[in-house]
Specification:
With 97 residues, the chain is mainly α. The chain is built from 2 helices and no strands. The longest helix has 38 residues.
Length: 97
């Protein structure tokens, strides 16, 4: 969504609160990405460390670890992109009319 299409004077209190909820939702989404990535990293390290004799499980551990790192990077990029698009509206003073 193109949030730059709205000027500061066009926002009502309801609109400003909706944007605040959008900012909070963006932060919750980042935390969900990080939680999922942490689970993938932990699972990957567990498979790699506790099954040294089984090459298949070690390879699965490496794959899970790499997917976890990619998930962190993707989540951070998405968070930054949405935050940048919302940045123009973080200092908005809503109309009370």
């Amino acid at each position: 969504m193109n949030y730059q299409a709205y000027s500061k004077t066009d926002l009502t209190l309801r609109d400003a609160l909706a944007f605040d909820r959008t900012i909070l939702a963006n932060e919750r989404t980042l935390l969900a990405y990080l939680r999922s990535a942490l689970a993938l990293l932990a699972g990957g390290l567990t498979l790699y460390k506790f099954f040294p004799e089984d090459k298949f499980l070690q390879n699965m551990g490496i794959i899970l670890f790499v997917i976890g790192v990619i998930t962190i990077i993707f989540g951070l990029i998405r968070f930054a992109k949405v935050r940048k698009s919302l940045k123009i509206l973080t200092m908005v003073k809503p109309k009370l009319d």
